[in-house]
Amino acid sequence: MAKSKPIGVRFDLYKLDMIQKEQNLTSVQQVVNYLMDNYGSKEVKRGAPFKNMPPYHTDAPNLEELANYLPTPPENLKGLDLAIWKSENWK
Fold first, then answer.
1. Of 7-11, 66-70, 82-86, 87-91, where does mean pLDDT reach its minimum?
2. Quick one: what percent of the chain has pLDDT higher than 90?
3. What are phi and psi of 39, to 5 degrees?
4. How far apart, in Å, are the Cα atoms of 41 and each of 33, 35, 44, 85?
5. How many helices (H) and strands (E) does the chain have?
6. pTM for this prediction
7. What is the dihedral of CA 20, 22, 25, 27, to 10 degrees?
8. Taking CA 14 as the corner, what is the angle to CA 20 and CA 34, rounded to the nearest 5 degrees?
9. Cα 60 to the center of its chain, rounded Å
10. What is the pLDDT of residue 14?
11. How far apart are CA 87 and CA 83, in angstroms?
12. Do 85 and 75 meet the contact criterion of CB atoms below 8 Å apart?
């Protein structure tokens, strides 16, 4: 590897010592090389977290099928009575 002309750089001594101890590095140049080798190595995956979500997957149940599975509560139930009915019937 070719050497470049010296450049004055200031480091946070706490961070420098921490990296040297964690990675068992003996010189500041080794710390710089370690940081440059690992810079940007994390791949960021983007996109939908679930690939089989409707409307992208044809086998997914539609809303009409889901409505058939859940019974509808009586219209006169409200508030706490409705919450109790849902907890007993929508399991």
1. 66-70
2. 12
3. -75, 125
4. 14, 10, 9, 52
5. 4, 0
6. 0.41
7. 0
8. 35
9. 25
10. 92
11. 6
12. no
